[in-house]
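The records we work with from here on pair a chain with its fold. Each token is a code from a learned vocabulary of local backbone shapes. A record is reproduced here so that you can trace the correspondence yourselves:

_____
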Amino acid sequence: MVDEDELPDDVVRIDSLVEIKEEGSGRIYKFQIVFPAEANMKMNRISVFAPIGIALLGYRAGATVEWEMPGGLRAFRILNAVQAQKSALVGDV
């Protein structure tokens, strides 16, 4: 176990604002990873238990993550990740 204050800001976790690029298609997605009760696709808030939420947890900006999604294996590069409460200091993702 690691104290949350000891984690670098760019490690994906609950409340992270994340920007990823899908390898292959080049599509860019921006969203916040939240608890299931706070998930709302219209507000780009993805549940931590969604396949992409699970896949990204613990990785840092710059990492490429492969994960088996409902449509098959996909790879994503994490372009940026920052904690929501700190985003005002560095600008939104």
Q: What stands out?
A: The longest helix spans residues 51-56. The CA atoms of residues 36 and 47 lie 5 Å apart.
